[in-house]
Amino acid sequence: MGETDDPTSAATTTHGDLTVRTIAMPADTNANGDIFGGWVMSQMDQAGGIAGVERAQGRVVTVSVEGMAFLRPVRVGDVLCVYTRVVATGRTSMKIQIEAWARRFRTRSREKVTEGTFTFVAIDDEGRPRPIPPLP
Hints:
Order of helices and strands: EHEEEE
Oligomer: single chain
Largest sheet: 5 strands, antiparallel
Strand content: 35-45%
C-alpha cells in the first residue's frame, strides 16, 4: 500500500499512490517563515488532478475540498510527498483522498502534514460534465 518507517504505527503509514513529490523553497513561505498552507494545498490539488485525469481518462476540474486539516508545518528544505487514492466515483464525479507528508530536511524523518478529500468532475472539451468510464 504505502511507504512506512514503522509498520506498527498508523501515524507513519501512507495511503494511496505517490503522485507528486517536490521540495519546499524559501519563496513558498508565509510571514512566520513556514511554508504557506495555500502552496501545500495547491500541490495536493495538482496531485488530485493527476489521479483524476488517470481515472477519468480526460480533463477534470476541482469542485470542492472537504475535511482539510493542517496537522504540522512544512519547512523550507522539506520534501513534500503527496499521496492520492480514489475513494468514490459517481456518474461524472469522483472523490479523491489526498495526504501530504513532509520528509524533513536533514533528518529524513517523515510526518503527515495535512490531508483532505477533493471532489473532481470529468469534463468534455466544452467544459460540460461527462461520464467517467467504468472500471475495467
